């Protein structure tokens, strides 16, 4: 792995930044709103033709703003290409300017349009285009807009292409109140928006395609990105082949601590993930009763019985990175282990019961650490509700990173990684099959192993967290392709972790 590799990741921008970029482009290049709308409508029509070349009946739902304007441009292109096009609009008058001109051009050319009436239902079409609302949405959908979105959800079997953002989704946060279009494909204009990649917005967007509308990157030069997007395409650059003269001491020593009585499995998953992600050495410190099972399962892991913190000390002395939390429990034993781990200055990954303990203690000094909360743990760590965390996952991860002065991986659909002073990253991989017990333990071991291998070259906690969260999600996708999402086990990720961590060797 190389330092600074995150600089290459594609960036996404909030809607306010997109509007500034649009103004910069218009003033520098001499484009106007109609030009951009014409480009947006054309890009959408081309994508529709590419994805659904057989579609003859095309329905377009058009809202009152410029997102609707994009829809009218597409409708006219489809109509003039001989397709049967049907525009459904809301009762509202189309906003003056480019959107109204696009609507008038479609209607003057003889295009069909009707106002949506809930009792009439939806016409049968081959594809729907969602051009109700884009980045100008400021409130939850209600009335006819909500009824139309519900009809698209319940009374329609045709695929949906959303323009810019699925209507009802907040482009910046991905939040919606339960009423939002669920698209098969979303074509984002000018730049990706964070809300397309995480939380509910990720689910609503389906596949995301970006069209810059011909605007050069420099229109964003002075604008702080909202996040960068980590995709599987980055993995080969992050995992170059190992030096031929490498030795195990070069790849760090991960010490996994956890597995109070009755919780040995979580620690076994964490330790095996660290081994499969390429740590040079892996040790496990756990309750005596788990030692035989762990040794039998993975003799490569140096498993030790630890009853009190004094027995842990020699293991801490030998380690280069700590992974603590899986199966740690909420008893005195776990608390003593956590105290001993936090007393070192070793880099550490904290998960599960370690996070619950930290939330109870209100500790604020985690040092060189990665924490990997799911939304429930994040809510406890922040003293907020899960709904508050999920309403804007990027901001919640940033709040956590600020509060605990460490790197945060907020798990869930589109995991978000944040750290003080870093542009947050969103993982564009993973699937619902991964929502199962033990997946987090694998993530903890994966990140710890990357942290160990990066040292002493200086792979930061943030870099290891982004790389590890992507590797873990991509391994989950590969495992799901090989047998399906339902019934996917955390241990199914192990062969995939190894395969994905060796992309060059594989090619
Ligand atoms: N900017 C660019 O670079 C480019 C932008 N382009 C396109 O324009 C889109 C942005 O267009 P936009 O600004 O006109 O906003 P849009 O999303 O159409 O909605 C605004 C309208 O909806 C209304 N409204 C809002 N919420 C509502 C609600 N809950 N329920 C009901 N009504 C609601 C709101 O009314 P208001 O609240 O202001 O009274 C207003 O009338 C963008 O996503 C992209 O597709 C491209 O053409 C190319 C370049
Ligand atoms: K839309």
Could you explain how this protein is built, in words?
It is a single chain. The model has no long low-confidence stretch (mean pLDDT 94). The protein has 2 domains: 15-224, YjeF N-terminal domain (Rossmann fold); 246-506, UDP-N-acetylmuramoyl-L-alanine:D-glutamate ligase, CATH 3.40.1190. The protein is elongated and about 85 Å long. It is built from 19 helices and 18 strands. α2 crosses α3 (66-80) and α16 packs across α17. The chain has helices at 15-29, 33-51, 66-80, 98-108, 143-154, 199-205, 235-238, 264-276, 291-297, 309-318, 332-342, 352-361, 375-382, 386-391, 393-404, 439-454, 461-481, 493-500, 503-506; strands spanning 11-12, 57-62, 84-89, 112-115, 127-131, 160-163, 185-189, 207-211, 227-230, 253-257, 281-286, 302-305, 321-324, 348-350, 369-371, 407-410, 416-418, 425-427. It has 507 residues and is of the alpha/beta class. Strands 1-9-18-17-16-15-14-13-10-11-12 form an 11-stranded mixed sheet, sandwiched between helices. The longest helix is centred in the last third of the chain and has 21 residues, at 461-481. 41% of the residues lie in helices and 15% in strands. Bound molecules: ligand NPW and potassium ion. Ligand NPW binds next to α1, α2 and α3.
């Amino acid at each position: 792995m190389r330092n600074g590799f995150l600089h290459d990741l594609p960036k996404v921008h909030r809607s306010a930044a997109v509007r500034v970029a649009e103004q910069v482009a218009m003033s520098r290049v001499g484009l106007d709103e109609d030009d951009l709308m014409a480009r947006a409508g054309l890009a959408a029509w081309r994508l529709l033709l590419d994805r659904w070349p057989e579609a003859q009946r095309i329905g377009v739902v058009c809202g009152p703003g410029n997102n609707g304007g994009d829809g009218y441009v597409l409708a006219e292109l489809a109509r003039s290409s001989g397709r049967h096009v049907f525009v459904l609009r809301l009762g509202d008058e189309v906003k003056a300017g480019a959107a109204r001109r696009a609507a008038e051009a479609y209607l003057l050319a003889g295009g069909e349009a009707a106002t949506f009436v809930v009792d009439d239902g939806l016409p049968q079409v081959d594809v729907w285009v969602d051009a109700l609302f884009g980045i100008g949405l400021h409130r939850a959908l209600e009335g006819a807009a909500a009824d139309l979105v519900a009809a698209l959800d319940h009374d329609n079997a045709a695929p949906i292409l959303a323009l810019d953002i699925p209507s009802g989704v907040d482009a910046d946060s991905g939040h919606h109140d339960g009423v939002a279009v669920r698209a098969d494909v979303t074509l984002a204009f000018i730049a990706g928006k964070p809300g397309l990649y995480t939380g509910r917005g990720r689910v609503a967007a389906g596949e995301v395609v970006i069209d810059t509308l011909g605007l050069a990157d420099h229109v964003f030069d002075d604008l702080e990105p909202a996040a960068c997007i980590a995709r599987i395409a980055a993995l080969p650059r992050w995992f170059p082949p190992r030096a031929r003269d490498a030795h195990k001491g070069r790849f760090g020593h991960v010490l996994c601590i956890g597995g109070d009585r009755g919780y040995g499995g979580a620690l076994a998953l964490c330790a095996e993930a660290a081994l499969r992600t390429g740590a040079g050495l892996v040790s496990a410190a756990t309750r005596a009763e788990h030692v035989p099972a762990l040794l039998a399962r993975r003799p490569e892991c140096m498993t030790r019985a630890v009853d009190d913190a004094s027995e842990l000390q020699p293991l801490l002395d030998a380690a280069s990175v700590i992974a603590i939390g899986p199966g740690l429990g909420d008893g005195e034993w776990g608390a003593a282990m956590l105290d001993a781990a936090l007393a070192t200055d070793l880099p550490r990954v904290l998960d599960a019961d370690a996070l619950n303990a930290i939330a109870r203690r209100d500790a604020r000094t985690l040092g060189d650490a990665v924490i990997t909360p799911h939304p429930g743990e994040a809510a406890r760590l922040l003293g907020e509700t899960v709904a508050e965390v999920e309403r804007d996952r990027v901001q919640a991860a940033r709040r956590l990173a600020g509060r605990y002065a460490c790197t945060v991986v907020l798990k869930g659909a589109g995991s978000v990684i944040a750290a003080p002073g870093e542009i947050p990253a969103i993982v564009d991989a993973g699937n619902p099959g991964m929502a199962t017990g033990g997946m987090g333990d694998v993530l903890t071991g994966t990140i710890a192993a990357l942290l160990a291998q990066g040292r002493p070259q200086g792979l930061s906690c943030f870099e290891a967290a982004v790389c590890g969260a992507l590797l873990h999600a991509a391994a989950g996708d590969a495992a799901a392709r090989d047998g399906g999402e339902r019934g996917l086990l955390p241990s199914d990720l192990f062969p995939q972790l190894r395969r994905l961590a060796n992309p060059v060797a594989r090619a």
